[in-house]
Amino acid sequence: MNKYLIPDRMIPSFDMLDVDDLKERNIDTILLDIDNTLVGHKCVKPTPKVKEWIQTLQKEGFKIGVVSNANRSRTEIFSRDLGVVYIHRAAKPGTSGIRKALKLLESVPERTAFVGDQIFTDMYGSNKVGCYSILVKQISKDESLYCKFKRILERMVHRKMQTESDFRK
Ligand SMILES: [Mg+2]
Question: What is the CATH T-level fold of the domain 3-164, as seen in this structure?
């Protein structure tokens, strides 16, 4: 299996992120997907829980950025409410959006964690850049047909990961 598809870590939801583990790994930057990672895709603004969580991370000294494949208005409205830098239409699994975010934050991949819900976009892209990739369980099952199809492929990857227990780190 392609090594870029394999997350470095899997967690049930964004708020289960292990801050101490990230610090031990010398990570100072956290990049975030929006849809189905922080909120369901119909949720326009960050929930109080998301806001609080991001504020906590910022107080802990982490730089935060949003990297989304969504359009400008979706990404902008969401990220401005959080007061974090953002890249819209990031074209994940391409790496240019993630690299742009790192540049804006003056961060490097080796010190960056990427949190997302999709193996074929978030994990592939962030692993390729060299970030520490963290897969969360998708928030909403209410997705487009295209996403549903990708989920079927993702389940195949998951099954293969379980049989190989093929974690990179
Ligand atoms: Mg997503």
Answer: Rossmann fold (3.40.50)
For residue range 71-117, what is the model confidence (pLDDT) as tens digits?
Answer: 999 999 999 999 999 999 999 999 999 999 999 999 999 999 999 99
Residue 165 per-residue DSSP state: T
The mean pLDDT value for 41-68 works out to 96
Confidence (pTM):
0.88
CA 144 to ligand 1 centroid distance, Å: 12
Q: Ligand 1 centroid vs 157 CA: distance in angstroms?
A: 17
Per domain, the residue ranges of the chain are: 3-164
How far away, in angstroms, is 115 Cα from ligand 1 center?
9
Taking a 5 Å cut-off on Cβ, the residues next to ion ligand 1 are 33, 35-36, 117
**pLDDT score of 168:** 52
Cα atoms in the 13 Å half-sphere on the side-chain side of 14: 28
Provide CB contacts within 8 A for 91, sequence distance 6+. 69, 97
Q: Decide if 31 contacts 103 (C-beta within 8 A).
A: no
